[in-house]
Amino acid sequence: MTDLKPTTLHGTRVVLEPLVREHHDGLVEAARDGELWNLWYTSVPTPEGMQQEIDRRLTLQDRGSMLPFTARSADEATGAPGRIIGMTTYMNIDQDTPRVEIGSTWNAASAQRTGTNTESKYLLLRHAFEVFRCPAVEFRTHWLNHQSREAIARFGAKQDGVLRSHTRARNGELRDTVVYSILVHEWPMVRDGLLHRMTRHA
């Protein structure tokens, strides 16, 4: 994966740009939009914990296991980046296969159901399959997060299995993790479905 380096991915509704520490204030405001840290099924940092989360992601980037992005809304006419609306990443990067997981994603409440998340997934998947040349891209979510599971399945990912008592949630309880993936030969159909959904949002 010689192309595994910070890069900006441009869409018509969203721009994904490499995470930097200067994004801190904008990310705090985005998280406050809906007080996302109070949602049980997410791991959105509190305003007080945002700097620590930025540092964590950048440390993992330095180690080669994560490529973090800040999501900004985009002007549909010019593509110019606007306000910060959230975060997403390539994570658990396996450079030998190569394989990535798309995750650690959250979006401000006002940006949800606007098409930005669909386009973010499209941009990340396209880059993973067409630039990184991944044979597979993975998604994971909480077993009890039915909204997330339905969304992942809706854009064409297949469920691989469930990792039982896989990790601990913020409240200390053990969580079961559902694993999904898209294989490279499935990408054209997934791509067309995402493009169709993005057109409906236009």
Automatic annotation (TrEMBL):
Keywords carried by this UniProt record: Transferase
Domain N-acetyltransferase: from-to ranges: 13-158
A GO term, aspect molecular function: acyltransferase activity, transferring groups other than amino-acyl groups
Superkingdom as given in the UniProt entry: Bacteria
Database matches in InterPro entries: Acyl_CoA_acyltransferase, GNAT_dom
Keyword Transferase appears in the UniProt entry: yes
Pfam families per UniProt: Acetyltransf_3
PANTHER family: BLL6696 PROTEIN (PTHR43610), N-ACETYLTRANSFERASE DOMAIN-CONTAINING PROTEIN (PTHR43610:SF1)
Listed name of the protein: N-acetyltransferase
